[in-house]
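1st attempt posting a full record on here, be nice pls
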Amino acid sequence: METLSLIFMAVGLAMDAFAVSVWKGMTQSRMNWGNALKAGLFFGVFQGTYALLGYWAGVRFHHLIASYDHWIAFFLLGFIGGRMVVESFKQKEQPDCSFGLRSMFILAVATSIDALAVGITLGFLETNIVTAVVLIGTVTFVMSFLGVKLGHLFGSRFSSKAELTGGIILILIGVKILLEHLLSDLIFLRKKNTARTKKTSAYKHTTPKWSHKFSWRPDNTIREASMA
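the predicted structure (as tokens):
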């Protein structure tokens, strides 16, 4: 998967963490940059780690499902993206305002489950996992850090839009992966059929070398007998 697609995927994955960070920022009476840093580190590290675990699982079992891995990637991303779109229209409860370790751990795990599923698709696609994990972790860190600040400044207007945008991005990436594989399979089959047709045509128009050496010519045989 090319770097641009990985960046868009990382942004889509980070939208859940961004939305939670916005809600967390809303609960602060004054801006606390330490809490913003804590949110960025928790969400960024967990997103990257879960993506790595998913990648490991995808690589381990890829040989069992290699023929339809692109369909699995499409359905996983479509399901995650669709759920994010649906959730964006639901009424949200006011989140726990605490930035304590227990609260942040629970939220980090909850928002990183999607990264685990996406990591599986990265294993199917033979992606450079170091680049992918660094991008996912870094993008999530930056967006979560900024989300706390934006939540403190502007309130909840960004949270639902963030989930909606993230869901749409993941769905589009899933469609892109599926179309790329289907088109590549179609091109491969066309090239294979064209090569087979050319080979058959060349075989029909080629006269075997031994046909000239061992051909029987009755007219020469009759002429030589009459002269004798």
